Amino acid sequence: CGIYSFTGTSISAEVKSVSIGDFPNLATIVEPTLSQTLIEKMKDKFTGATRLDLEETGGDLEFSGAVTNYNVTYAAAGANDQSALNRLTISIRVEYINNVSDESWSDTFQNSQDFDRNVSLSDVEQTLIDQITDDLVESVFNKAFNNW
Q: What's the sign of the alpha-carbon dihedral 20, 65, 105, 128?
């Protein structure tokens, strides 16, 4: 049928490569390593979980986009109307182009993680970024390769 399936993914046999473009950080708050962390995790996931070769530019499948939101909000009220939890939220916009089938889409993905209000963001920030970007990459992967 011309469809390649690997661990639940469906990729046309004609598709051989993927390229991951820039994801500039356009959020109001800029965490300096976030864009590069996201790009590297996408490269690892898209080549590790598929048979696709990574191309710098012009792959059969192309992904690009931007970090559009990075903020901390109150997640849950505690005693005396104080926050019991804070929430770090990251949003990304992803542009997808399939140069083999001329399919394309643009979508926004968002994920968040809660942390204790008594903990400084700087103490847990890298751990939260790792968890959130893992979830974001999984969501992008599922939309692109599993049609979710």
A: positive
